[in-house]
Structure formats: C-alpha cells, structure tokens
Specification:
The protein is an alpha+beta fold and about 300 residues long. It is built from nine helices and eleven strands. The chain has helices spanning about 5-20, 25-40, 40-50, 60-75, 75-90, 95-100, 130-135, 165-180, 235-245; strands spanning about 105-115, 120-125, 160, 180-190, 190-200, 205-210, 230-235, 255-260, 260-265, 275-280, 285-290.
C-alpha cells in the first residue's frame, strides 16, 4: 500500500506541510531542493529564483549554492560556476577558517564545477555558521543538503503492459468506461499493434498489444486476464466509484480494513479506503484513496 511515489517525493510533500505550519524563505529553499529531486532541477530552479528578493536570505551562501547545483544538473556548467563562485564569495576564505578553528563551527570545503575534464576547476571556500533563521529548516544535519555526485540514475516506472485477448474491446473499456486518455494507437511494425493509454494525472501508462513476439529468454506477457496487483490512486474514492458505475463498470463497494477484517464503507484514516474492478479479460485493478493529489505528495 504505497503512500508516496518515492522518498524524494515524500520529502517534497513533508516540506510543503512544514510550509503550512511555519512558512519562511528558508523552508521554501529547503522545499525547492526536495522538489528538484522529485520533479527535476528545472522545477526546483524556478522555486529558488522566486526567492531571489527575500530579505531574510540576503548575504546567505545557500541560495547561490543551490542554484549552482541545479544548473550543473541541467548541464549549464558556465552558469553553475558563476553561482558557486558567488556562494564562495559569501563565505570566509580557507585561511580565515583555519585561524578561526573548530570553535567557530565552520568548515573548509570545495566544490568542482565544469563537468570534469581539463576545463573543470575546484572552488575552495569556508562555510561559516549561518544565523539560526538560515538553518532551522534543515532537519537532517548529518546529511548534506545536496551532493552533485550522489544522484543516481533514475529508474522510472512508465508503462505497464496489460495482457488482453481483444485490443479493440480493451481499448474501448479503458478509454470510454474507465476514462484513460489514448496516447497512441499504431501498427509500429508489420502485424504489431500497440495502444497506449494513460490514467488522468498519472506518470505511468498502460499498453495493450497484439502481435508482439516473445523476446528470447522472456516469459512473455502472460495470459489475457492474468494481471494482478496494479493500483490506482484517487482523492475521492466515492466520487470515483460513482463515475465508474455511471459508465457501466462493475466495481466493488468502497472497502476498508476494520477490527474484523474487510468491511464496507470509507475509512476516515488516510490511505485506508479501497475498491477494485476488472476489465473484460479479468485483469484486476485496485483503487486506493489518497489524501492529496500526486503533485502535492
């Protein structure tokens, strides 16, 4: 029962909740970092740029540091270098850091910009302690705010193949009755037809196929109707059920887990209400009620 798309998405959602409780430019900056990891550096950069005129961040090295990191992730090395140098200028130099010693609470560090190779170089600087209003929002002090080299390659779930016996019948069911959007219906090779559909607001699509040969060593797509365990999320499960019923879909009652096991009715607890339906081939779908839209989690 999945409550968030990923740890980065959960962090973005939690910082949004923190904003509702204690809004400040620093919380906004922290949120920009979390959003950039969940939705991409371009989105995070827009949030950082919106904070440029905040008086509370004037003279703080964090905004240009974050901008530099996001620009580097976007492949804009020259602009990233400028931002890292601006961040370094807002801190004390390494000699001052050595003279100040451990009592100052600062540390000497460096960052390499330019993407590596002969054109790259290291910017060395001392990060001085920030005033409390700059640092209170960063809730994981043992973990760097970001690490340009720690970002792993994304493995994104984007298409689930639904095994069906009649592509036209299945397409009509998912598009006209369930409400998925048809993205593609094409013969991509002689005798190979692919229909791709996407649930509203989803980042993952489903594919219906006919004529697809089984790749060597693969178990294949499975028998029509064998799909199990796929789950959709909606923010109003009762309204979603009413819409499916109005379109002729046979759908279970809304269910929740009670003291005696499964019971009919919606639960007041988040992530605890479900329903299920099957397509004409018997492929099974679960639907779970989420407390907020995907973009806010």
């Amino acid at each position: 029962m999945r409550q968030c798309r990923s740890s980065t998405a959960r962090r973005a959602w939690l910082t949004r909740r923190l904003l509702a409780l204690a809004s400040s430019p620093v919380v906004e900056l922290n949120r920009a970092v979390a959003v950039s990891m969940a939705e991409g550096p371009e989105t995070g950069l827009k949030l950082v740029d919106a904070l440029a005129a905040e008086p509370a961040l004037k003279g703080c090295h964090l905004p240009p540091s974050v901008r530099g990191h996001l620009l580097e992730r976007l492949g804009r090395g020259a602009q990233a270098r400028t931002e890292f140098e601006r961040a370094a200028a807002l801190t004390r130099n390494a000699r001052e850091g050595a003279a100040a010693g451990a009592g100052s609470g600062g540390h000497v560090g460096h960052v390499r910009v330019g993407g590596g190779g002969a054109s790259s170089r290291s910017v060395r600087y001392r990060v001085r302690p920030c005033p409390p209003e700059w640092t209170m929002a960063f809730t994981e002090p043992a973990t760097p705010l970001f690490s340009p080299r720690s970002h792993t390659m994304d493995w994104t779930l984007e298409v689930i193949t639904v095994p069906v016996s009649d592509v036209d019948r299945a397409k009509a069911f998912y598009a006209d009755q369930v409400g998925f959007k048809v993205d593609l219906d094409a013969e991509v090779a002689p005798g190979l037809r692919i229909v791709q559909l996407t649930p509203p607001g989803s980042r993952c699509s489903v594919a219906l196929m006919s004529g697809m040969p089984t790749p060597p060593g693969s178990p294949g797509l499975g028998a029509p109707g064998s799909l199990r365990g796929v789950q959709l999320c909606v923010t109003d499960i009762e309204a979603a059920r009413a819409k499916l019923v109005s379109r002729g879909v046979e759908v279970s009652p809304v269910l929740h887990v009670g003291p005696q096991g499964w019971a009919e009715g919606r639960s007041e607890a988040d992530w605890s209400s479900f329903m299920h339906f099957t397509d004409p081939d018997g492929n099974a779908w679960n639907v779970q009620e989420a407390p907020a839209p995907l973009s806010e989690r």
